[in-house]
Write a structure and sequence with these properties.
It is built from 13 helices and no strands. By secondary structure, it is mainly α. The radius of gyration is 48 Å and the shape is flat.
């Protein structure tokens, strides 16, 4: 009972110490007593086993989490351009190829339309000029036909000026302004038949409706304004032309083109204000020398034809100024709208 009391009083080493000291065998090891020691110290082998099993389960779950792929959102999957089988890439490439094919078809069709229009009008004009004497060709040689064609065309033009001067000058200005805008587009880098047909039509419409008719009355007004034959009349007409009339006509051309592009009056005024001085000074590099011939040599009725020949260069400058400012403003508005409204993620 004393031993039991000692064990109950939690003094195990007092119980085992005499045994260890008294019985010292050669092959004895205290490890043999480790199990009673553990048992006597109220340790639970099942608890240790459960702890080991719990630790093994936790480690296996952690490894499974590392091996399992992370969950992704459907929006993230939609943003990814690549899939394991590459199906998205094939779909995107096929759609882009279809869009590229549609663009190529549109470009080819527009080029064909432009080429047919240019070649059609060119063929009509050349045939009219070359066949003016077709009623009298009987018995003529080819040399006689080519010799009299320019002279008879000039006679026909003078007759048109006498019968319908305003209509004849409007037609000439419309043709010249259309060709001038075409030259401007080619100068800007567009291919020969890849020009903007709407833009060329706008410029030709302004030349036909306004330049021909207004120029007809302007040159008559200028003669009435300076009814003298002195030496200073020609320089005075050139100065008046390159200050008053050039300012009026440049503003008309720029403003009407803006309205034909369906731009607001505020934008037209701002662009005209920004380019007015540049256009006026650009004209001073060309027109004073040309108008020395206009007012010094050419008769009043023939002045518009000479001026329209020089207008091929001037319309190129005017059209380039007008459309560059419009395209720059459109690009700026698009950039500002895209920056103010960023794409939603």
């Amino acid at each position: 009972m004393a031993d039991v009391n000692i064990i109950a009083g939690h003094k195990p080493f007092a119980y085992f110490k005499p045994i260890i000291e008294s019985q010292k065998f050669s092959g004895f090891s205290p490890v043999l007593l480790s199990t009673p020691l553990c048992y006597k110290t109220n340790s639970n082998p099942l608890k240790l086993r459960n702890n080991g099993r719990r630790t093994w389960v936790i480690e296996s779950v952690a490894e499974d989490k590392e091996l399992a792929p992370p969950k992704t959102n459907h929006s993230d999957e939609a943003r990814k351009p690549l899939l394991p089988n590459g199906s998205k890439i094939l779909k995107a490439s096929s759609s882009s190829e279809l869009r590229g094919g549609d663009d190529d078809v549109k470009k080819m069709s527009s080029r064909a339309i432009n080429a047919s229009i240019v070649l059609g009008f060119g063929t009509l004009a050349v045939s009219k000029l070359l066949t003016i004497d077709h009623d009298y060709w009987h018995g003529w040689t080819l040399y006689e036909v080519l010799r009299y064609v320019p002279e008879h065309n000039w006679i026909a033009y003078e007759q048109a000026l006498k019968s319908n001067p305003v209509i004849a000058k409007m037609a000439i200005s419309g043709i010249v302004y259309s060709i001038g805008d075409w030259i401007a587009q080619c100068y800007e880098g567009k291919p020969l038949f890849d020009f903007d047909l709407t833009r060329m039509f706008r410029s030709g419409l302004v030349g036909f409706t306004l330049h021909g008719s207004l120029s007809h009355y302007y040159y008559q007004f200028c003669e009435d304004l300076f009814p003298f034959n002195d030496w200073w009349v020609v320089p005075a007409k050139v100065i008046f032309d390159q200050t008053i009339w050039a300012s009026i006509w440049n503003s008309i051309y720029f403003g009407v083109l803006g309205f034909l592009r369906f731009e607001s009056s505020d934008n037209i005024y701002k662009e005209l204000k920004a380019t007015f001085w540049h256009m006026l000074t650009a004209g001073w590099k060309l027109w004073p020398f040309a108008h020395l011939i206009t007012y010094g040599v050419i008769p009043v009725e023939q002045r518009l034809l000479w001026v329209d020949c020089v207008e091929l260069i001037w319309v190129t400058i005017l059209s380039t100024y007008s459309n560059e400012k419009s395209e720059a403003r459109i690009t700026k508005d698009a950039d500002s709208s895209s920056s103010s409204n960023p794409p939603k993620e």
